[in-house]
């Protein structure tokens, strides 16, 4: 058994990647999976949950985010659906997320505060507080987001901002390394200094992939990507200091093929 708690991400409907991750788990190469609770028809949702539960792999659940139509801090931003439809959709999505966590025995539910329209940060902060008032679960774990993506701002980019958003409602946090690097590049901050600020938070999960050197855009690149610019020395120094905190790899394209190799890359970086 490896001396770190590494995991990989899989969508609820991605059976090919789940099969690969089950083999990696059986081999002892990973110790958990992060399940993206993407919206699915009810029957398919229950069927997929059953298959994941049957794998016996410990699970972290990732709640749907704005890419799935769930945008807590500004539900109607960048969305032309009627507001009543949006709100009903979010309620159903969060209900399914809690159901997934219950079924899979997940102790962690990763949450994004969301994106908002330029100039709307104050309103977004208030809306997110309202969201937490209506969705109060001790498993909710707030993740830091890049400062911007595709031209729109996102809420909760630094340790200080996450703490302010969480207030007393959320006590657990997810540190996403490439998101923090994108924020540091965009705001011209020191990545190492911003990383240090997370020592004051109760970080329950790490997210890891790579970004291009100097980039402000989160691309979920491989750890050994030739254009990678993430400060891996600083990242792995923190991972070793907090070896008991799970670290989840997150990739988007060709996941089944990418994860098999990236688990090995991670092991090599850890050994170094």
Automatic annotation (TrEMBL):
GO terms for molecular function: DNA binding; isomerase activity; zinc ion binding. GO terms for biological process: DNA repair. Residues 39-260 form the Xylose isomerase-like TIM barrel domain. Coiled coil: none annotated. Gene3D superfamilies: Divalent-metal-dependent TIM barrel enzymes. Keywords: Isomerase. InterPro entries: AP_endonuc_2, Xyl_isomerase-like_sf, Xyl_isomerase-like_TIM-brl. Pfam families: AP_endonuc_2. It comes from the Archaea. The keyword Cytoplasm does not apply. The keyword Isomerase applies. This is Xylose isomerase. It comes from Methanoculleus sediminis. The lineage of its organism: Archaea, Methanobacteriati, Methanobacteriota, Stenosarchaea group, Methanomicrobia.
